[in-house]
Design goal:
Shape of chain B: elongated
Largest sheet of chain B: 9 strands, mixed
Number of strands of chain B: 11
Radius of gyration of chain B: 22 Å
Mean pLDDT of chain B: 92
Number of strands of chain A: 6
CATH architecture of the largest domain in chain B: 3-Layer(aba) Sandwich
Order of helices and strands of chain B: EHEHEHEEHEEHEHEHEHEHHH
CATH topology of the largest domain in chain B: Rossmann fold
Number of domains of chain B: 2
Low-confidence stretches of chain A: 119-125
Distance between the termini of chain A: 39 Å
CATH topology of chain A: Nucleotidyltransferase, domain 5
Mean pLDDT of chain A: 90
Structural class of chain B: alpha/beta
Radius of gyration of chain A: 14 Å
Largest interface: A-B, 23 and 22 residues
Strand order of the largest sheet of chain A: 3-2-1-4-5-6
Shape of chain A: globular
Number of helices of chain B: 11
Structural class of chain A: alpha/beta
Strand content of chain B: 25-35%
Order of helices and strands of chain A: EEEHEHEHE
Number of helices of chain A: 3
Oligomer: heterodimer
CATH superfamily of the largest domain in chain B: P-loop containing nucleotide triphosphate hydrolases
Chain lengths: 125, 297
């Protein structure tokens, strides 16, 4: 079963991006084989609702576990409704965070972090 | 010019003195009598003309936007609505649809694209228009509720039902910037007053404002606030240069004066206590009328 990780780059040597909605890539990783597929986060460039867009992508990909730094209330609601568990990770290299994940060292996020509105007003509202 | 005269006060850069100019201009004209002056505070995210004018409210009109309401028994979770929405106000997960009304801009697109007609729109209140009076001045202000995203529906409501009465003067205090809420506020104006200050930021944003009003075809002039006093008059060059490049007249200079600033900080209209300024502001109208009649003939 693959898990999703918000990351700054396309492979296991990238770092965990602490921002979920605005992360550059969502890595879809098989923790057993370490096979890794990078998906561009569709929420990265939207005017508002980035977390919603990224969460929708995670749910669409059919993964049930997500590793990220923090997650706002809108994204949290979608992930919870989609049955996705969220694990909080430090902004370390993805490879290292996967080890922590396998050792059961990552704690599960059970409440959303603070909401942070996107850059509303760049001519998009 | 039509029946009424609509004059917008905008700036590009925030904090240059739009509201100061709008309220002093409106007050000075109203003090001269005539057929009535209406001040519209269209800075709906932070309407503050009322701080100076302290109006008595006579009418409050709620403003709402249509947001999607999904009939869950009809929805087949196809996701077309969520893909369509540019503001990510809908999300589909297997067996459920989630809506985020605070992100919705009320375009109604989701209900149009839904192939099974599962989405209806219902109104959600996002703000209000308040109408009142301060002395002989009529004032309408738009107020967007705290935390709401789209100001434009409030601006639109504010501009509904403007009096079309000969001789009526309508002055619009416009929000800063040059994006949608500004365009909505100044649309249909007969003239635009651009307020700026002699700083590089002031100049930069003034140029953007020039391009905006020129694209919209609104005649315009500049009021230079916090202008250089005699010992540092060269500070104004930065704006004068730009105005001459764009061939835009400077209608008035308001000096960088601690006295005016102190009055402003107390919420006192300086045109109310200094007759010189009341005269200066009232003369702007004749300058504008001259320019508009030249342009029309």
């Amino acid at each position: 079963m693959r898990i999703a990780i918000s990351a700054t780059g396309k492979d296991l040597n990238a770092y965990v991006d602490p921002r979920f909605g605005r992360c550059a890539y969502l890595l879809l990783v098989n923790p057993e084989t370490l096979e890794c597929e990078a998906v561009t986060n569709p929420g990265r460039t939207v005017g508002g609702g980035a977390g919603i867009k990224a969460a929708q992508e995670v749910v669409n990909q059919g993964v049930k576990e997500l590793i990220t730094g923090q997650c706002g209330p809108n994204a949290f609601g979608i992930l919870a409704a989609g049955g996705v568990k969220i694990f909080q990770a430090p902004g370390e290299m993805v490879r290292k965070v996967l080890e922590l994940y396998q050792q059961g060292e990552l704690s599960e996020l059970t409440v959303p972090g603070p909401s942070r509105p996107g850059p509303q007003g760049w001519g998009i509202r | 010019m039509g029946y009424q005269v609509i004059i917008s006060v905008l700036s590009g850069k925030g904090g240059t003195g739009k509201t100061t100019v709008a309220v002093n201009f409106a007050f000075s004209l109203a003090a001269k009598g005539g057929d009535g002056v209406l001040l519209l505070d269209a800075d709906v995210e932070e309407p503050n003309a009322g701080l100076y004018l302290k109006p008595t409210l006579e009418e409050v009109v709620p403003v709402s936007v249509p947001v999607p309401e999904v009939a869950k028994e009809r929805c087949n979770y196809c996701g077309i609505c969520a893909d369509f929405c540019q503001f990510n106000a809908l999300a589909i997960i297997p067996g459920a649809i989630l809506t985020f009304p605070e992100l919705c801009h009320g375009c109604g697109g989701c209900s149009l694209v839904c192939p099974v007609e599962a989405i209806q729109e219902k109104p959600r209140e996002i703000g209000r228009v308040e109408k009142g009076r301060a002395d002989f001045l009529e004032i309408w202000q738009g107020c967007l509720n705290v935390g709401e995203a789209p100001p434009v529906p409030v601006t639109r409501k504010l501009k509904e039902g403007l009096p079309r009465q000969k001789g009526k003067i309508i002055i619009i205090d416009v929000p800063p910037g040059a994006s949608c809420p500004v365009v909505e506020a100044i649309r249909g104006s007969d003239y635009a007053i651009l307020v700026t200050e002699p700083t590089p930021f002031g100049r930069h944003d003034l140029e953007i404002a020039f391009q905006l009003v020129q694209q919209l075809g609104i005649p315009h002039g500049v009021i230079l606030n916090r202008a250089g006093t005699e010992d540092r008059a060269e500070a104004d060059n930065i704006i004068e240069e730009l105005c001459s490049t764009y061939k835009v007249p400077i209608l008035l200079k308001i000096p960088f004066s601690p006295h005016l600033a102190a009055l402003g900080a107390k919420g006192v209209l300086f045109s109310k206590v200094i007759p010189y300024w009341q005269e200066q502001f009232s003369q702007i109208l004749s300058k504008i009328k001259e320019r508009c009649s030249c342009a029309n003939s």
